[in-house]
């Protein structure tokens, strides 16, 4: 699959983001670090999008493999014990 990215030791860049007032107030009340929560959310969204792109880029390979298995069966199937 796509390369794994770690942002733990990455440099930081200040940015502005607009959040729903009630959400921000509740997060502050719960003592949630907004920067860390936002970074975690963005990192998750990036990982999900990269996975989506990878699946789309490899769709033809999936189709070819599935067609091969449909035609010839699983490789080494005769060695399966279940």
Account of the protein in words:
With 82 residues, this protein is an all-alpha fold. The protein is elongated. It contains 3 helices and no strands. It has a domain at 21-74. The longest helix has 24 residues, at 34-57.
Number of strands: 0
Classification by helices and strands:
mainly alpha
Distance between the termini: 28 Å
Helix content: 55-70%
Percentage beta strand: under 5%
Q: Could you tell me the mean pLDDT?
A: 91
C-alpha geometry = elongated
Model regions low in confidence, pLDDT < 50 over at least 5 residues? none
Number of helices: 3
Spell out the helices and strands N to C. Answer: HHH
| Assembly status | single chain
Main sheet attributes: strand count, strand direction, barrel closure: none
Radius of gyration from CA coordinates:
22 Å
For this entry, give a set of tags.
82 residues, mainly alpha, elongated
Chain-wise SSE layout:
Layout: H1 21-29, H2 34-57, H3 59-72
Task: Please outline what is shown here.
This protein is mainly α and 82 residues long.
């Amino acid at each position: 699959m796509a390369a794994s990215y770690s942002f733990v030791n990455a440099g930081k860049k200040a940015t502005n983001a607009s959040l729903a007032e009630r959400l921000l107030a509740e997060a502050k009340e719960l003592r949630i670090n907004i920067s860390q929560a936002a970074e975690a959310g963005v990192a998750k969204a990036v990982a999900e999008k990269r996975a989506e792109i990878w699946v789309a880029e490899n769709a033809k390979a999936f189709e070819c493999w599935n067609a091969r298995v449909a035609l010839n069966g699983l490789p080494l199937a005769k060695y399966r014990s279940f």
